[in-house]
Amino acid sequence: MNHTPDPAEQTPAAKPGIPAGFRRVVAASMAGTVAEWYEFFLYGIAAALVFGEVFFHSSGNKLDGVLAALLTYAIGFVARPIGGIIFGHYGDKFGRKKLLQISLLMIGASTFLIGAIPSYASIGIAAPILLVLMRFFQGIAIGGEWGGAVLLVAEQSPDDRRGFWSSFPQFGAPVGNILATVVLLVLSSTMPDAAFMSWGWRIAFFLSAVIVLIGWFIRTRVEESPIYQAAAKDTPQVGNVWQAVVRVCKARPRQVLTAMGLRVIENIHYYMIATFFLTYLSVQLGIDTAHILLYMLAAHAVHAVMILVFGWLSDVAGRKSVYLVGVLLATVYGFIAFPLLDTRSDALILTAITIGFIIHAIMYAPQPAIMSEMFPTHMRYIGVSMGAQVTAIFAGSLAPVIATWLLRSYGSWVPIAVYIACAGLVSLVATIFMRETRGADLAALDEEYRAVA
């Protein structure tokens, strides 16, 4: 009797349409993403909980220190589009793999050095200046990382499963945050508060070196996608970064603007939960750090799983319909979340944070597929990087700052919820004008561009 193999027993290479070595490509993309987001999110958590007291002069109001720390946090977002454009241009010109290795080493070095910066009490104003410089380099690196990481997978995925497979680099983001949260939770729970605030938090930044080396090693073992190699031979590249920006804006203006618009509420929504909620729970509600980190840890575990679920669903139901649901839910989320947080109930706080991350997963999971299917190969890295990172300047970077300022000014969460809802309307317009790209053939997209160029 013939044995029909169970699909679950087949390796990715054995499945129709999935190239040999694809499992390694997915692992390489995700490993680097975990490492880089561990470091980026580590800064965000530390900015909300630690940096205000360590690196800035005390004014007597804790929210003032938090505001100052969050402004340095925003510097990384200002740097991200710069990194996205630079790495995007050279990634289209010389390959995704080389630029991804550089970005990983850059963020590793800057994160390690943040852990070595003396406190404000030791070196005065030089402490926040050094913090800003290191944060800027972090932002440059992460801005260049995202586009290359998702393209490493998206360009080799089967057309009908691109949403699922390209959600794995996105899956790496909450995993990186989980690692950052676990490390800080262990350190803050096992040390006296004075020791943790003085030097214990630095251990988490020094550990980044180990994670970076693991991610870098895995990335050395993959090759460029066949579609990129073909495009590199057939399509001449422009000479400099500015020319690359002009070319993609002229060739795909609607796609660039749509991608930016899609990111507005997703970016604000995420950093409200992952960063501002830390401030709201600790300063406004007086909940201790260990409890807050436990909430985040549990919610991020759910977040990671749901990213893969909604990546798969975008292949089944379409990119546009899935994203639209996420945008609508995110728009009203603030009016639901803050009343739950104000109960100070462990169960309800965890529910609010978890629901928020699930809503984020609905939008975050299909983004790599959506943006990859917008641009031809020879301008795809810079196209997706601009679409994803430029929005960060006024969205994710300022969201915790604006929310903290609104809280300080009005003492109420209502203006914050209104702010989130206004951001949702921007992304709603972008989603309505977005074209459905599910199942797009990337090679056909390249041929279409060459035919009209």
Question: Can you lay out the helices and strands and say which pair or pack?
Answer:
Blueprint: H1 22-54, H2 62-94, H3 96-114, H4 120-123, H5 126-154, H6 162-165, H7 168-190, H8 193-206, H9 208-219, H10 226-234, H11 241-251, H12 253-284, H13 289-317, H14 319-342, H15 346-364, H16 367-372, H17 380-389, H18 399-410, H19 414-433, H20 442-452
Helix pairs in contact: 1-2, 1-3, 1-5, 1-7, 1-8, 1-9, 1-12, 2-3, 2-5, 2-17, 2-18, 3-5, 3-9, 5-17, 7-8, 7-13, 12-13, 12-14, 12-15, 12-17, 12-18, 12-19, 13-14, 13-15, 14-15, 14-19
Write a brief structural summary.
By secondary structure, the protein is an all-alpha fold.
Task: Give a verbal description of the structure.
By secondary structure, this protein is mostly helical. It has one domain (19-452): Growth Hormone, Chain: A (Up-down Bundle), CATH 1.20.1250.20. 78% of the residues lie in helices and 0% in strands. It contains 20 helices and no strands. The chain is globular, with a radius of gyration of 21 Å. Mean pLDDT is 85; it is low at 1-16.
